[in-house]
Amino acid sequence: MKTLVEYICTEKSTYAYDAISNKIISISGDFIQPLTKRDSFAITNYLTRCGVISENKIKEAIWINSFSEYIKMLGGKIPALVLELEQECNLRCDYCVYSGNYENYRTHNATAMKIDTAMKAIEFFHSHNREADKATIFFFGGEPLLRQDTIKTLVEYAKSIFGSKPLSFSASTNGTLITPDFLSWLHTEPTFNLYITLNGTNHDKYRHFPDSRGSLKIILNHISFARDNFPDVYNNQIKFLCNVDSFAEMVDARNFYISHSLHTPATTSFIMKRYGNEKIDSILRADIQRDNVAFEALVDLYINSGDEFCHSHFSDSLMTIHNRSMTAVYDCVPIERTCQPFGAKLFIDATGQFNICERTNSTINLGNIQNGFNLEGIKTLLDSYKNISSNACIYCSVQRLCPRCLAAMISGNLFCSIPDDICKNIRMSILRELKLYCEISEKNPKLLRLLSR
Q1: 3-state class of 196 per DSSP?
Q2: Which residue has the higher pLDDT, 362 or 440?
Q3: Which of 66, 196, 200, 286 has an alpha carbon within 20 to 30 A of 265's alpha carbon?
Q4: pLDDT score recorded for residue 32
């Protein structure tokens, strides 16, 4: 009998996670820990006979909504627009997807979005956002603050088009080009958030200028100026993003943020491995023993105190577990955690072409601002992804919690399955997060309130 069950052992109990029902089931303490394969097999048979878990009869993966429903969403409910204002950057960060260290990704160049292209993009977004409750526009690069005057112009233009609809803006920046004038302007635009990448003690190791000079000191000076002279902007509009290569580096980053009295990052995430070359491999080559010790320290800190920095890393995956659908699946399993193109945001590159998102190397034609959406190309993309998921994922015990990304299955104009090593790492991460979730429910259940959507 084939089931989709994983067993999670904590210090206090044993749990079974069943992908068919998407439930976490507490098992009697009579079972001895740690479980052997023989124990797991016996428990699985027992739980199946009792009707607690079900046999896997899944035949295919399907999108959570039909293509006709998807087209309706495109017509008026796109929530956000991402504008690639620049493909140039004043830094040369080693792990940037545009660094030349990732296969099939563009590299930094002088291509910039013309202002009339940006205005047409905003108009297109407005016409496809009419049924949404609010709208958000992100300015992306390269480095978007190379175009500060353009950003100011486009914000005014967007406000004139969207009228009274709630409208917010943001830009993701390396933080080296922040000026007093731009901070003064931000003070007049309270719905504009500025996301600064700040990685802590090891920041300069990877984030540097073309001549290899580090960028950390400059960024900290700009942050200090903002905090002293524009406290409202610093407290309400400046956010931080933190990228690390390991849990050990995450511990160092946390200490850095605390010692400099900085906001907790909005997110703390790992450097991307997919499509990386030897340089990326060398960056991500961690001391496993040291990393495991760091992970356990972060977990203990999070469970015992709800530490905000730890929350910035663990919360997304824990929220997925906490808010998961409890609807059982049988013949078909819904593709739940994968964004359909433009369902969360419409990314328009510097030339006016539509793409899945800002972090993909896809060259598949999905449309442009002149001709609109290429529905045939989009349908082919969705069908290809569904077929790959049906072939590769329906036998996986963590498929309903998997954050597999549609963009991660595309290289250039070709679809490809996720490599086994990536799947293995994702599965290990999900099992680790399931254990953390169970430990929180045992030791500090009040912390679960922070995970409710």
Answers
A1: strand
A2: 440
A3: 286
A4: 45
